[in-house]
User: Fold this.
Amino acid sequence: MSPVPENTASLNTAPVILPGALLGFLGGGQLGRMTAMAARTMGYRVRVMDPELACPASFVADETIVGRWDDVDAARRLATGVDVVTLEIEQIGADALSAVAQIVPLRPSVEPIRIIQDKTLQKTWLAENGFPVGPFRVVRNEADLREAVPALGGNVFLKVGRGGYDGRGQARITPGATTDLGQVWQELGATSAVAEQALELECEISVMAARNPAGEVRSYPAARNHHENQILAWSVLPAGVPQEIESRAEALAAEIIAKIGVEGLLCVEFFVTRSGELLVNELAPRTHNSYHQSERGCATSQFEQMVRAMCNLPLGDTSINTPCAIANLLGEVWLDAVNGSPNFAAALAVPGVRLHLYEKHTPRRGRKMGHLSSVGATAEEALERVLEAKRRLDPIYAAVLAGEQSGVAEGDVFGEIRSRVRQRPVKAKPRR
Ligand code: AIR
Assistant:
């Protein structure tokens, strides 16, 4: 894809940061860990900042600085002596970001992060810049919420402006239910939020775009995503959507990253509605869960692309070599497992499957602890393999499955797989 010359303040002026340099990451979770692995592969050194000394990235980084997201002093210590800093979670405080940017290049820079990290600003920015979004209202108090819900048709997702991720900071409001909006408002922290009309969705997709300081922009092919309880459950590449939607989504992601001025990565999550509209759901200025499979099937993984973009290297080829998929492993995989130990050996017997664990020490429900990845001859096969591996983690589940036929009919294979996953008898499990 050709460069899109927007917001190119540092166009062609930023030096290339070569291997051997020290890269700084604000955040040391799984995204930082996997990016640090890619950086190390390329010969870079890595320093991370995270509230936890034993954070997932600490095991692959050269140095870990302990600091909360708003710890300005820790952010300065991260930045001092590194060649460039990026972030792997957007909750970093504004003062900490500015402190870093005064010392060393911060990619993405303060302004795009400021807009993206607050959903009220992000949604408004998208709408004002002419990008397609669904009906929404910014709500700043309970009265706004009482007005917004009926105006949006009563069927609404309420998302806090700042700090929510992986389903945290979200509430669902449905018509007819005796929802106490005052209580919903309080439970979400009585803080500025976005009320979004719940849409009839055909599917959800995302497009990862990359942009380096030289102004080069590249989009990956779209990934198809499936969420459960507002948390990504699985994702597959390619998305298998009509070519017209695929091209439009890739082009929109390239336009947005250039317009908002992100140097680094920008993941654009989209809704494809039943009526065929393509709407931007939300933006993430970093690596993203829906592109973990790029490590298996793309010419360049999102993690390597992040390193290339932040170091002003040429961006890597984003094409898909092999269809690939991931399924997330949340804390419940451990909490609900017989004897507390998932059957990894059974899962790894599925052809093409690999295991990725983040070395998080405390499993919690809804917490991302790891993922399974797979490749396949088709997207359907890659997805079926990774879902089969996930089912096998639970020995009782595996026993139930052994008695079933496992062929997938031709036709709407994604729909078929989704309905089979929904029908699984998850209940037959002893709780510890
Ligand atoms: N993350 C960042 N934004 C959304 C997500 N999921 C990743 C980052 C962050 C980690 O999740 O890698 O550091 C935090 O995970 P947890 O389980 O400690 O809350």
Observations:
- The pocket of 5-aminoimidazole ribonucleotide is lined by residues 27, 29-32, 88-89, 165-166, 367-368 (CB under 6 Å).
- The chain has 15 helices and 17 strands.
- Confidence is low (pLDDT under 50) at residues 1-5, 405-414, 416-432.
- The first strand starts at residue 22 and ends at 26.
